[in-house]
Amino acid sequence: MVNRIEKLSLLSEMIAFAKTENELKPIEYNFLLGVAHQLDISQSDFDYLINHPATYIPLKSHSERIVQFHRLILLMNISNNITKAKLIKIHNFGLRMGLHHDAINKVLDLMNSFPNNIVPPDVLIDIFKTQYN
Known about the structure:
The chain contains seven helices and no strands. By secondary structure, it is an all-alpha fold. It is globular and about 40 Å long.
């Protein structure tokens, strides 16, 4: 598992992704707070990250990067307002994490074929496994 600094970096990245016009919607805040709790990050530390982003630290493990990409997809879908700008943003986040371009595109293309645009974890993992091998 990732260390505390990497966890803060993950959350900071998700906050940056979710912020539109320098704000987090309440539903996004609650989702991110839930992720913070899963990562054993306190609410006060999480709230601090909203205005004071942590330095980006790339994840070493390919599986952890896939999990983070899945979190970003979940975050993007909670507001039910998927725009072309968000799709470009999530694609760029995936590339920055070192994920395979074709796998990212396939996941984003398949999203619409699942309820609530949420690709099941096993499908997502299979897509990345195919590209990784």
